C-alpha cells in the first residue's frame, strides 16, 4: 500500500483505513534508519560509535535490551547481516507498539495528541 511512516498511518486511520501492509520497517532497517519514540535515528552516524545507549530506552525489543548503539553501528558499518536482522526486529517492535498506542488513543479519544507527537518526525533514508 505504500503507507508506512507514522504520520501517514495516522492520516490514513483518520480517513477510515484500518489495514496496513508495508515493507518500510525492514527496508528502513537495511538502510540504517530506525524509528524511536524520540524520533528517527540513523545508526551509521558517527555520534553513535561509542554510545552505550540502547536504540530506544523505552523499547521492549530484544535488540534494545541486549545491544548498544555503538555495537549495532559497528555491525551495520561492517555490513554484518546480523545488523539488518536486529535493526529490523527493533523497527517491527516500534511499529507494533505504535499500532497498540494508536488503538488505545482511538478508544481514549486522544489521537490528536499522538498525531502531534509523531507529526513532526521526518525520515531520511539516505545520507
Keyword list:
2 strands, 127 residues, mainly alpha, disordered C terminus, 6 helices
Please, could you describe this protein's structure?
The chain has helices spanning 6-14, 24-30, 62-66, 69-77, 81-108, 111-119, and strands at residues 33-34, 41-42. It is mainly α and 127 residues long. The chain has one domain. A two-stranded antiparallel ribbon has the order 1-2. Strand 1 and strand 2 (41-42) form a beta hairpin. It is elongated, with a radius of gyration of 15 Å. Residues 123-127 have low confidence and may be disordered.
Number of helices: 6
**Average pLDDT level:** 89
Total DSSP E strands: 2
Helix content: 40-55%
Q: Report how far apart the termini are.
A: 25 Å
> What portion of residues belong to β-strands?
under 5%
* Biggest sheet layout: 2 strands, antiparallel
Contiguous runs where pLDDT drops below 50 for at least 5 residues: 123-127
Seen as an oligomer or otherwise, the chain set is single chain
Q: How many structural domains? A: 1
Derived structural class: mainly alpha
Order of helices and strands: HHEEHHHH
Adjacency order of strands in the biggest sheet: 1-2
